[in-house]
Amino acid sequence: MLTRQFFFNKIGQLLLHIIFWCGVLLFYTYFFGFDSIDFSYVVSFSLFLMPITIATTYVFIYKLVPNYLITKKYFQFGLYSVYTIIISSYLIVISVFYGLIYLSHFKYADMAPISRNLFFVATAVYLVVIVVSGFKLLKLNLKQVEQTNKLENKVLETQLKLKEQQLNYLKMQIHPHFLFNTLNTMYGFALKKADEAPEMILKLSNLLDYLLYKVDKPFVQLTDDIDHIKDYIELEKMRFNDTLDIVFFTENIPNDIKIAPMLLLPFIENSFKHGAIKNGLLSIKINLNCRDKNIHFNIENTSTQPDTYKNGIGLENIQKRLDLLYKDNYTLNITKNNDFFKVNLILNTNASE
């Protein structure tokens, strides 16, 4: 099948070449026939020029242009072009003598007017060579651009696959990190045999459903993410009881804004895990609002050790995910001292649309 297709392609190309050179022959007969009534002379002279034109043209389009000009070997291209022009010019001179000796029998007046002038004859030949070489150069440039675009697309596809693999790896880190913290909370309730355990299991079930089935999506509704943040906070409230003072304030949350799943929760997890109880309370303040398609997330908790968060999996993980998903479309500022730990995150959600 491929051999047959190749054969037909070659036949098609050959026919195109034949048609083109027939057109060139017509051009020559019209050009050299100007102000001449000897049609047989004009046709014979044009036919004599055809092999010279064809050979010169093919040398340029199949050898000099692709091998030297396209590859930017300008010196070799110039040198071999000069050689080709010298040889073809010599043949063009012979064609003029052919017209004088064989076609007009040494009668200069019987020659077609234009064929007497070596400059006009050379112009006709090299005009064809230049036009065809120009089209060949354009075709090769377009082909090179197409190959470059294909290569760029392959590079982009490879980068995208690598990015997806990195994100999947980071998500795999989130799963055990989140479950470890949550199961520790449930373990504490089991030891106490608390009445809140069934409600806690229900909320954990909702969180696990979110974790298993929705976190694999690249982006989710911000409202869904907020609901699961609230479930997590409720779980922690049960664990901390009266030692927790938490405020979670949301404002101006549109239904159409999306965010990467489990992006904000690690900050909240860390505030519980590493936050310090001062004066009998762990104080956490969370503010989440949207302005001009930007998500503004702020969280602050009491702290006693500035370096507590340095080696946490959550913060390192989220920094990598932000770089992969939002690149230059986010701002993250972290402030920490002996009294508090603050996170300020601004996300441009246009990056996820």
CATH homologous superfamily classification of the largest domain: Histidine kinase-like ATPase, C-terminal domain
Strand order in the sheet with the most strands: 2-4-5-7-6
Highest CATH level, the class of the largest domain:
Alpha Beta
How many angstroms separate the termini?
A: 45 Å
* Class by alpha and beta content: alpha+beta
CATH-scheme architecture of the largest domain: 2-Layer Sandwich
Instruction: Specify the helix fraction band.
Output: 55-70%
Rg on CA atoms, Å: 40 Å
Strand content: 5-15%
- The mean pLDDT is 81
What is the number of beta strands? Answer: 7
When the domains are counted, the total is: 2
Shape: rod-shaped
Along the chain, the helix and strand elements come as HHHHHEHEEHEEHEE
Q: Major sheet, described briefly?
A: 5 strands, mixed
In the predicted model, the low-confidence regions spanning at least 5 consecutive residues are none
List the helices and strands and how they pair.
Blueprint: H1 2-32, H2 39-69, H3 74-103, H4 118-192, H5 197-213, E1 220-221, H6 222-240, E2 244-251, E3 258-259, H7 265-274, E4 282-291, E5 294-302, H8 313-325, E6 330-336, E7 340-348
Parallel strand pairs: 2-4
Antiparallel strand pairs: 1-3, 4-5, 5-7, 6-7
Helix pairs in contact: 1-2, 2-3, 2-4, 3-4, 4-5, 4-6, 4-8, 5-6
Domain Signal transduction histidine kinase internal region: 166-244
Pfam families: His_kinase
Transmembrane segments: 12-33, 39-65, 77-98, 118-138
Briefly say what this structure is:
The chain has 353 residues and is an alpha+beta fold. It has two domains: 2-153, no CATH class; 194-352, 2-Layer Sandwich (Heat Shock Protein 90), CATH 3.30.565. Helices cover 64% and strands 13% of the residues.
